Amino acid sequence: MRVVSVICCIALLFMTFTSPANERMKSAQKLLYQQVSLLALVENSDKFNEYKQLLFKSSLSVEQLIIIESDIAQFWFQRQIPIRSEELTQTKDPFVRAMAIEPQLAGYLELQNRIRHLQWLAEQDWWQPIELDHLVRPNQMDAIVPVVLRRLWLLGDAKVAVTESTRLSPAIVDAIKRFQGRHGLKADGIIGPETLKWLNVSPKKRASILAKNFVNRAEFMAQRGDRFLVINVPAFEMELFNNGKVELVSRVIVGKPYRPTPLLSSSISNVVINPSWRVPKKILYNDLLPQVRKDGNYIAERNFDVYDRNNNLVVRTPEQWRDLAKGPFPFRFVQRPGSNNTLGRYKFYFPNEFSVYLHDTSDPRLFQRSNRALSSGCIRVENVEGLANWMAANLVKDKQTWVDRHADRNRTQWFALNSTLDVHLVYWTAWIDDSNQVQYRNDIYQMQAGS
């Protein structure tokens, strides 16, 4: 009812300062035009592109408006995204109806503003490719600096549009760092290939990427429960939601492009302290055996036990392991728990056909990299202690044993949970953050190449 009241109040104020029916119709068409412009980007459909043309050029009849309104509302209903007021979609006032079918989404108005700005930029002839075959570092002089500054200003990262100097000054460096941060790049203020690649992304493509990802994320969030874990793969980020609020955030490491982390939904059913690591065949053959062929001591130094097909422990000298690794290898590796175990201190297990899970790591330095597509498919969590402590406080049944087992680094212990925790591995390359800044990320698996 509050939403209905707000819309009615706005409508009454609008009526006070405008002339009657024809002005209401024009205002309604402007609102509908903004919506179908967004939906045309999301669906790339002939229908919404046709509606754009009609709403921009023509004075439409009531019947035509109602058809457009119905299709807009249906778009949101199909995605289980609520509109502002179903009740007011039946009113006679076209402006109120147009307001009523807007989605009830946080950040929607900011999204519309950004889309309008990008579409305006797309209409200008300003986005010619910037070419550069070298790095430009802070305080260096280069003819490209004024061109880069203007583009940063157009995208909202620089406060001024022009400079009389070709020096990469501290103010411009700060703008570049803001731009790099919004694109998941290392914020070093250097104009290099990755920064240039994003500066050259056209406004039209930016608008398409943002619109599609915003709506996909909204559709996902509209269908979630109160408590869940979400890993946004191209953002290299994990968020824990509880009662509609983010309780925990962490950087993560995900799969390399040729060993991608799969997109799936499951539920964490167990937590393991001091896990052992059963090495998957692909990792064994591609990563470990090449190391053994170089140095047979690799197995003992990394605390691996080797088993044959009958699950018997196999013991060989380093020289024998080195020779065996050169031919057929009918053995499997299991790494014992300990400080150098690849999985680290914790493993969070959830059923899936890809044998991936969340875990700790023995090499936390990798979390400092901007591109963290580094694993063989599993997800490594930087704030693994925070996640483990939250699980212990909220879901682990045997809390006393949990405390006791932390004293022993080499003993594996599985813990059952009072209830499972839903986990979702998703793929969003753009969103609007809590500071109303548009964030973009590289399409690391080339899943949105057509955007």
UniProtKB/TrEMBL annotation:
Organism: Shewanella schlegeliana
Residues annotated as domain L,D-TPase catalytic: 227-406
Record has tRNA processing as a keyword: no
PROSITE patterns reported in the protein's UniProt record: LD_TPASE
CDD domains hit by this protein: YkuD_like
Protein name, UniProt field: L,D-transpeptidase family protein
Keywords, comma-separated and alphabetical: Cell shape, Cell wall biogenesis/degradation, Peptidoglycan synthesis, Signal, Transferase
Signal peptide segment: 1-21
Pathway terms, separated by semicolons: Cell wall biogenesis; peptidoglycan biosynthesis
Active site as annotated: H359 (proton donor/acceptor), C378 (nucleophile)
InterPro entries documented for this protein: LD-transpeptidase_YkuD-like (IPR052905), LD_TPept_cat_dom (IPR005490), Peptidoglycan-bd-like (IPR002477), PGBD-like_sf (IPR036365), PGBDSf (IPR036366), Transpep_catalytic_dom (IPR038063)
Record flagged with keyword Signal: yes
Organism classification: Bacteria, Pseudomonadati, Pseudomonadota, Gammaproteobacteria, Alteromonadales
Family to which the UniProt record says this protein belongs: Belongs to the YkuD family.
